[in-house]
Automatic annotation (TrEMBL):
<keyword id="KW-0808">Transferase</keyword>
<dbReference type="GO" id="GO:0009103">
    <property type="term" value="P:lipopolysaccharide biosynthetic process"/>
</dbReference>
<dbReference type="Pfam" id="PF13439">
    <property type="entry name" value="Glyco_transf_4"/>
</dbReference>
<dbReference type="Pfam" id="PF00534">
    <property type="entry name" value="Glycos_transf_1"/>
</dbReference>
<dbReference type="InterPro" id="IPR001296">
    <property type="entry name" value="Glyco_trans_1"/>
</dbReference>
<dbReference type="GO" id="GO:0016757">
    <property type="term" value="F:glycosyltransferase activity"/>
</dbReference>
<protein>
    <submittedName>
        <fullName>Glycosyltransferase family 4 protein</fullName>
    </submittedName>
</protein>
<feature type="domain" description="Glycosyl transferase family 1">
    <location>
        <begin position="194"/>
        <end position="347"/>
    </location>
</feature>
<dbReference type="InterPro" id="IPR028098">
    <property type="entry name" value="Glyco_trans_4-like_N"/>
</dbReference>
<feature type="domain" description="Glycosyltransferase subfamily 4-like N-terminal">
    <location>
        <begin position="85"/>
        <end position="172"/>
    </location>
</feature>
């Protein structure tokens, strides 16, 4: 039997567009691209050119027009033929257009629509209207969590019978012990001391970094002397207050380290391996991949008790109210305690990381494709 050909959107994988750093959607897209072939699926990467990055600079097969131009044409009924006679196209990054074949779209969350104050103000109303409109071109919607389903129904106007829930995953490598010498070298080069509190994510309002720093500042001096606060993630939209909070904490003598240019999953895994606990205080997440990454590395996790995060954590994390600085601080203290409760959570977390693999994600995604062709 010949492989099922599909088109897979790949703008998030283009080095000329992402600066060599994959965001959550990029990690998701790359995981599918690498695993679908083992399931009899042949993905053809396809990317939209932009004014700054024309077709000849793209690594994937270039779409005939930029996304905004093609979306306008879609509104007038113009459809794009899929690449290489693909049976369907899977849109992983919201850039959904009218195609001459079935379309699967992964809508990771409805954050720009539900919480417009957390999104860039530049052309916000237009972008949100286009996002709602684009969702109409998908024959099947993939949600990455059960928690996201009601949002997609309400804010994208999607019927529930068009939605399939396919959870995100984590690479098997995250469950393997990291090389101790490599971990030590990473710590030395970055000025890290083992056992730090770790945050991973792009600095932006919903990541709640400001309250995390406040919580760290309230910890007992003895705890802070033992444990740095390490923030891994590049600057995003409207993060000036977060950067100011980082600089002020450093100026005031608090050991807060910001790694804003860490590139590559292997380097990130080394940083996880040296942590004492992951603290993930987001105000809202469509999923929350760092929780699974920390589980795989065998470190305790403290995370918010809202949106998808309890679903991802599955009772293997300490949960807290992300609006309560004292609650965040208490969870941080509990997460690094040497007790049976934490050891049980670590064991359960590793079980969840093993079960929620990218192989599982690819298998369930392939099943969605086969429903349509």
């Amino acid at each position: 039997m010949s492989a099922l050909k599909i088109g897979l959107t790949a703008n998030t994988l283009e080095p000329a567009l992402n600066g060599g750093i994959l965001d959550g959607i990029g990690i998701y897209t790359q995981a599918l691209q690498s695993r679908l072939p083992a399931l009899g699926i042949a993905p053809q990467a396809m990317s939209f050119p932009t004014r700054a990055v024309p077709a000849q600079r793209l690594q994937a097969m270039a779409m005939p027009r930029s996304y905004p131009a093609q979306l306008v044409l879609s509104m007038f009924g113009a459809a794009v033929r899929p690449p290489d006679s693909a049976a369907l196209v899977h849109v992983t990054d919201y850039r959904c257009i009218r195609m001459t074949c079935p379309v699967v779209a992964t809508l990771h969350d409805a954050i720009p629509l539900r919480y417009p104050q957390w999104a860039s103000t530049r052309l916000r109303a237009l972008k949100n209207a286009l996002m709602r409109h684009a969702a109409r071109y998908a024959d099947k919607i993939i949600a990455v969590s059960e928690a996201a389903v009601p949002e997609l129904i309400e804010y994208f106007g999607v019927q529930q019978d068009r939605i399939a829930v396919v959870p995100n995953g984590v690479e098997a490598a995250w469950l393997q012990p990291a090389d101790a010498q490599a971990v030590a070298a990473m710590q030395e080069s970055a000025g890290l001391r083992p056992g730090y509190f770790l945050f991973v994510g792009t600095l932006q309002p919903r990541k709640n970094v400001g309250r995390l720093i406040q919580a760290y500042r309230t910890l007992p001096a003895s705890t802070r002397e033992q444990r740095q606060l390490v923030l891994v993630g590049r600057s995003g939209w409207s993060c000036d207050d977060d950067i100011a909070a980082i600089r002020q904490a450093q100026h005031d003598g608090y050991d807060v380290v910001w790694l804003n240019d860490l590139k590559g999953q292997e380097k990130l895994r080394l940083v996880y391996a040296g942590a004492g606990a992951l603290v993930f205080p987001s105000l809202h997440e469509g999923y929350g991949i760092p929780i699974l990454e920390a589980f795989g590395c065998g470190i305790p996790v403290a995370c918010s008790n809202v949106s998808s995060m309890p679903e991802v954590a599955g009772n293997a994390a300490i949960e807290f109210d992300p609006l309560d600085v004292e609650a965040i601080a208490a969870a941080m203290r509990d997460a690094v305690a040497d007790n049976e409760e934490n050891r049980a959570r670590i064991a359960l977390g590793r079980q969840r990381a093993a079960a929620l693999s990218w192989d599982n994600t690819a298998r369930l995604t392939a099943a969605v494709y086969r429903e349509l062709v």
